[in-house]
Write a structure and sequence with these properties.
398 residues; 2 domains; Rossmann fold; alpha/beta
């Protein structure tokens, strides 16, 4: 498969302006983010306040499902050229039939997922078909038990991007609805896996469940695939440091701010996205201008100061990131502030993506502004160091 471009950026607002909302679905099926920022702001000010999480407003429920403008964004266009992102199975492409399929959420795309994809690719070659991942958007728990739904680790386009790097040829982001959730294991298998996808092989993890009320498991799947004459391989879990790699484990580490430990379990550094909004301008007066990031729609790392990388306007910078309040100035609201090292760009109203590489320190008050400035200088140097270190591992700005 041809290499994807090294640049990775947030979706650009020009995308939504170039296509009316009324046109709806666009081939590709990932979420456009920047174009609906005005709607998100309107909902925030008109709707009742969402439940808070440690002082952070949760906007996940307010963010609508929007189709992408893959024709206007070169990154999404490149992803879509090499990995088909599909929502509608009514016209399943002939070239994707008779392939190998893995069904799951693949949230975060961790090492366990990477192992499944490795086996999936081998199965696809063996049957002479495509390697296909079937995911659900949103996660079924969001509809069945909203209060129990875990915060996502990846958004749809990011998930497709990470899976593309592992080699898959198509990702189904199937819209989760009541009709889908009502299907029993046998119905899901016959209608979707066999009927729509026409799969010849399947690859799943040991803890795979499917169908209404998660009533189907790997034993159910073994029986169904055997009756259909399909090949099935169940992949054992990946274990790192004596514990199984899972999305739940990654989620726990991220929530605790242990992003460097999470990095060991992921195929790429943990990334969030948001929109740049106006702040107090205090960072600029200190000599460290920051982009204030709002409406983060995935799990936010625990409070702290981090080394990271920031992506915007098709560029990438080493970054120092503050997640938390500003206690030195008596502010206690949780904020995400990103200092793009060496950048001189206007980012207000722009989408911004941020990789979290290393937690540098706690957030705490300083007795004097001069002491804060000195600490910020040390934070920036440390952030620059860890960004260079990550690049030396082969994960440079892209």
């Amino acid at each position: 498969m041809p290499a994807l471009p090294k640049r990775r950026s947030a979706l650009r607002p020009e995308c939504e302006r170039s296509r009316p909302r009324s046109q709806g679905a666009i081939p590709g099926g990932a979420h456009s983010y920047a174009g609906d920022w005005a709607l998100v702001r309107k909902q925030r000010h008109s709707a009742p306040a969402a439940p808070s999480d440690g002082g952070r407003l949760t906007l996940q429920a307010a963010l609508p499902i929007i189709r992408p403008c893959v024709d206007s964004d070169p990154v999404l266009a490149a992803i879509n050229r090499h990995v088909k992102i599909i929502r509608d199975l009514a016209q399943w492409p002939a070239e994707l039939r008779q392939g190998a399929v893995s069904v799951g959420n693949f949230d975060g795309v961790h090492l366990g997922h990477a192992r499944i994809i490795e086996v999936l690719m081998a199965k696809a070659r063996a049957v002479g078909g495509a390697a296909i991942v079937f995911t659900f958007d949103p996660h079924p728990v969001r509809l069945l038990r909203p209060a129990e739904a875990p915060p996502p680790l990846t958004w749809t386009a990011r998930k497709a991007e990470l899976l593309a790097e592992l080699g898959i040829e198509a990702m189904v982001a199937y819209p989760t609805d009541e009709s889908l959730l009502a299907l029993g294991p046998g119905e899901f298998f016959s209608r979707i896996v066999r009927g729509k996808l026409a799969a010849r092989a399947m690859v799943e993890g040991q803890n795979f469940f499917f169908g209404r009320d998660r009533s189907g498991n790997v034993d159910t799947l073994r029986q169904l695939t055997a009756e259909a004459g399909m090949d099935l391989e169940i992949v054992p879990p990946v274990v790192v440091d004596g514990e199984v790699v899972s999305s739940s484990r990654v989620r726990r580490l991220i929530a605790e701010g242990r992003v460097e430990e999470a990095r060991k379990l992921l195929t790429q550094p943990y990334r969030v996205r948001g929109m740049v909004t106006h702040g107090a301008g205090r960072g600029a007066r200190l000599g460290f201008p920051t982009a204030n990031v709002d409406a983060v729609d995935t799990l936010l790392p625990g409070t702290g100061v981090y080394a990271g990388r920031a992506y915007a306007l098709g560029e990438c910078w080493a970054a120092a990131v503050n997640v938390g309040p500003n206690p030195t100035f008596g502010e206690h609201a949780l904020k995400v502030e990103v200092h793009l090292i060496g950048a001189q760009v206007e980012l207000y109203g722009q989408p911004l993506e941020v990789d979290f590489l290393m937690r540098l320190r706690d957030v705490h008050p300083f007795a004097a502004v001069a002491a804060l400035r000195e600490q910020l200088e040390r934070d920036v140097e440390a952030a620059r160091h860890y960004a260079a270190q990550e690049a030396s591992r082969g994960s440079s700005c892209r």
